[in-house]
Amino acid sequence: MFFDALAALQEWAPIAALRNSRWTYASVNAAHIVGIALLFGAIVPLDLRLMGWRRTVPIRTMVRILLPVAVAGLTLALVAGLALFSIRAAKYAATGLFQLKMALLVCAISNAFLLHRAVQWETHQAAAGVGPPLRLRVAGALSIGLWLSVIACGRMIAFVD
Amino acid sequence: MHMTRRLTCAAIAVAGTALFMTSGLAHHGWDWAEGETFELTGVIIAAQLGNPHGLLTVSANNEKWTVEVGQPWRNERAGLKDAMLVKGVEATFQGHRAKDKGKRVMKAERVIIKGKLYNLYPDRD
């Protein structure tokens, strides 16, 4: 059932066209990378701050700039990534490394959501100059590790059969 | 200050690990294939064409081979049409096989169908 749906997705006309195109495919590929660059480039400075680096800079100030950029990057990466996945949906869905990447992606996004809802997130945002609570340090370190793992898995999908 | 130094070290370690992890693997490019030219003649039993690259399953000498052909634009440039790379077509593939002899995988540089040569890589030997 699931694989029937994936097979249908693969044969959908716009996806079939993308599979046979040259520059459109290359552009979607590039968009996926730009999305990742925006997301990772914005989230790492924020994570480092959460871990206690440059604690004289208020977290709230960094969040105002970096969070929208990270969300925009994630959205772009997800949309382009879905298109790239659709080209060989059944094959990727059956690839262990792709499944691992999706699991890590869910963990990384959950980590961000849970942090956003944590009590410490609100209470500590205005504080500057003091060490962040453990909750924020752990979330920051997890975030860097998880996103790095998602990127590594994604890149390596092209190198396995 | 300590935190800064520790974080810088951590960042360098992470970047180094990422580089190490990606440099050892090679399926893209040609590093995974051997230098000598390899030739395979057989019958196509399945085709999966299009981006990111085309794969043919070929039955040759009672063995099942995977033959990597070009992306759509490369096949088209060589004059190869998707309709020519379908089940039942007999073809000869020249190129390079995987260094790992346990794998029946090759990357085709040239395809010969019914005596006609289609060169996917005119600028390679």
Description:
The complex is a heterodimer of chains A (161) and B (125). Chain A is an all-alpha fold. In chain A, helix 3 (23-50) runs antiparallel to helix 4 (59-87), helix 3 packs antiparallel against helix 8 and helix 6 (96-117) packs antiparallel against helix 8. Chain A has helices spanning 2-11, 13-20, 23-50, 59-87, 89-93, 96-117, 119-125, 134-157. Chain A has one domain (2-157). Chain B has 125 residues and is an alpha+beta fold. Chain B has a domain at 38-119: OB fold (Dihydrolipoamide Acetyltransferase, E2P) (Beta Barrel). Chain B has 2 helices and 6 strands; from the N terminus they run H-E-E-E-H-E-E-E. Chain B has helices at 2-23, 72-78; strands spanning 38-48, 55-60, 63-68, 90-97, 105-113, 116-119. Chain B has a 5-stranded mixed barrel with strand order 1-2-3-5-4. In chain B, a hairpin with a 6-residue loop joins strand 1 and strand 2. The termini of chain B are far apart. The mean pLDDT of chain B is 85. Chain A binds chain B through residues 16, 18-22, 25, 48, 51-53, 87-88, 144, 148, 152, 155-156, 158-161, and chain B through 3-4, 7, 14, 18, 21-22, 25-28, 48-52, 71-73.
